[in-house]
Amino acid sequence: MKGIRIEAYQNLVNYKKPTSFQLKESYPLPPYSTVIGMVHAACGFTSYVPMQVSIQGKYHAKVNDLWTRYEFAGSSYEQGRHQLKVELSDGKAHGITRGVSTTELLVDVELVLHIVPEDKQYIPIIIDALKSPAEYLSLGRREDLLQINVVKEVEIEFQEMEEDKEVDFDIFIPQSMTKSDIYGKVGTSYRLNKTYKLLEIAKGKHIRQWEKVIVSHVPASSTNYLVAYEKVLFDKDGYTVFLV
What angle do CA 138, 144, 150 make, to 5 degrees? Predict the structure, then answer.
């Protein structure tokens, strides 16, 4: 099959875990929905273009950064309790609490992403958009700039390995694949978002219902390796591919 390989770099980035608030924790790699969203934003797609994604990479350190947090829940303003006051047109006022919170940041992130659109006519469109985006690309938060070093079309195919192969990058592997013992040891489990459908919960009100993918985050180490004589997807330059 044909696909696209992206090699990219980010200086500081947070791939936020949806359930973290006081400390905005980060996934070790960007989830599938984040990568798909970046591609769609770069290409200007206004509806979902079905695609499979493979994500691997590594970071060199973690740091915590402070940020200003504003909390407001529609409560009435109380002097001494709220730091900010919002005047309403009906004469009432709402209070806003201002405080400090923390964001976890990954430092010096190197990424290798594979994109395989269901319809192959999108391959040149995606490549052109990533090479010449209309505005700067980001992955994670809006301010997490994405520097693309390589983007190219590649051939991806199954190959049977003649010997065990160590993993070069941390990688997300769907757990449905790890059951076949492709890896000698699996890593931390995550339930990652991939795509969503809008679900109407009341007249005119919709929420996003996400398709979840259960994966193992397998770190690059001498104890994690591809087992010989297993068939695994590789691109033409020897990069491992686990498509979701």
Answer: 50
Residue 145: how many other CB atoms lie within 10 Å = 16
Contact partners, residue 101, CB within 8 Å, separation at least 6: 22, 23, 24, 66, 67, 68, 69
Please give the Cα distance from 190 to 193 (Å, whole number).
10
Q: Give the ranges where 83-198 is alpha helix by DSSP (H).
A: 122-131, 175-178
> pTM value?
0.87
Q: Which amino acid is at 23?
A: L
165 class by beta-carbon count within 10 Å (0-12 exposed, 13-18 middle, 19+ buried): middle
Question: With the C-alpha atoms ordered 73, 76, 80, 86, is the resulting torsion angle positive or negative?
Answer: positive
Residues 16 and 31: their CA atoms lie apart, in Å, by: 9
Mean pLDDT of 62-70: 93
- Condensed to tens digits (0 to 9), the pLDDT of residues 150-163 reads 999 999 999 887 77
* 196-235 CB burial, b ≥16 within 10 A, e <16: eeeeeeeeeeeeeeeeebebbbbeeeeebbbeeebebbbb
Q: pLDDT by residue (tens digit) across 174-183?
A: 887 765 555 5
For position 162, what pLDDT does the model report? 78
Q: How far apart are CA 40 and CA 45, in angstroms?
A: 5
Cross-strand pairs, 199? 207
Cα 171 from Cα 212, distance rounded (Å): 17
